[in-house]
Design a protein that fits this description.
By secondary structure, the chain is of the alpha/beta class. It has a single domain, classed as Transcription Regulator spoIIAA (2-Layer Sandwich). It has helices at 33-44, 69-85, 96-105, 108-112, and strands at residues 9-15, 20-28, 56-67, 88-92. Strands 1-2-3-4 form a four-stranded mixed beta sheet. α1 (33-44) packs parallel to α2. The longest helix is centred in the middle third of the chain and has 17 residues, at 69-85. It is globular. This is STAS domain-containing protein. InterPro entries: STAS_dom (IPR002645), STAS_dom_sf (IPR036513).
């Protein structure tokens, strides 16, 4: 009988003068995607992190081994939260598994494009 290996997962937060970096290590999947979204929600809540919400959230994905649809859902939720606040979101050091999932699901451009300021509208034939 094969026993699944427990998923090792870790989040490390570093606050800099211009941005907050969250390093994601391990597997971002059904078992732990809510840990990432809860952390980002906390960071984006005024006063919760004892500092103003970040204007730039950098997700360092270099240590990410695997991502499933729940992990993708977490990234989409984080992007929507960043957009609501007008914060910049970058997915840095993306491993191949992340880019492959973003390409397969048609979310690559949405998750990696710069945030638009509220009121900005994309006009046909531009951009």
């Amino acid at each position: 009988m094969t026993h699944p290996h427990p998923s090792s997962f870790g989040l490390t937060v570093e606050r800099g003068p211009d941005a907050v970096q969250v390093r994601v290590d391990g597997d971002l999947d059904f078992d732990n995607h809510d840990e990432l979204t809860a952390l980002v929600t906390w960071l984006f809540t005024p006063g919760a992190a004892a500092e103003p919400p970040p204007r730039w959230l950098r997700l360092d994905l270099a240590g990410l081994r695997c991502i499933d649809s729940s992990g993708l859902s977490a990234l989409l939720q984080i992007r929507r939260s960043a957009d609501r606040l007008g914060a910049r979101l970058t997915l840095e050091k993306r491993p191949t598994c992340v880019d492959r999932l973003l390409d397969l699901t048609g979310t690559h451009e949405y998750l990696t494009a710069p945030v638009r300021k509220s009121g900005d509208q994309e006009r046909p034939g531009t951009g």
